[in-house]
Specification:
199 residues; alpha+beta; six-stranded antiparallel beta sheet; 6 helices; 6 strands; rod-shaped
Amino acid sequence: MERDGEEEKKKEGSSYRYWVREATADAAPPPLPQKLTNNDVVAAPNAPPALGSLWNQAGTWEEKNLTKWATDRLKELLGSVGSLQFSSGKAEIIDVNKCVGDAFLVTVRNKKRVGYTYELSLKVQGEWSFEEDIKKMKGSLDIAEFSFGELDDLEVDVKLSDDKEMSLPLKQQIRMDMKLFLEPIRQKLGQFEQELKDR
């Protein structure tokens, strides 16, 4: 019985709780929370400039949705592609029918990363001269889902609206000509990617 009592005293004497209870007057005072002001944050010496929000000075995960800006900017850029002149005609992008997707900016470990995924359909109209006859044509350029950094792999699917009365060689010529829009579209998307990175 005496032995059990001694062991309990030893356990009590070596426990953390017991040690804290015995704190002396020369021990440091307990920390008190303080609210930081903007001046405290600005006056921090040797602190590298943090990316992201003011609350995220440590640079942990922070995601910002840029879809609205990106959709508006893509429509603006692609609408400014203008017209192309071909050997047998000309065509122009008159509208962005479909611009669906999302864009985001992520700050993680104080590094900025951007990304997007979009799907596009552009309304095109033009006229071609073929065998001394001028044919007016409407159609669309469809770009399947593409993402950040995939512009080299971009492909355009050409769809013609009124192609029932056209001969096969004329359809092929128009499709080949309309695929030439790929390079100016790629340049505008490259500009979009750069603007997204700079945000």
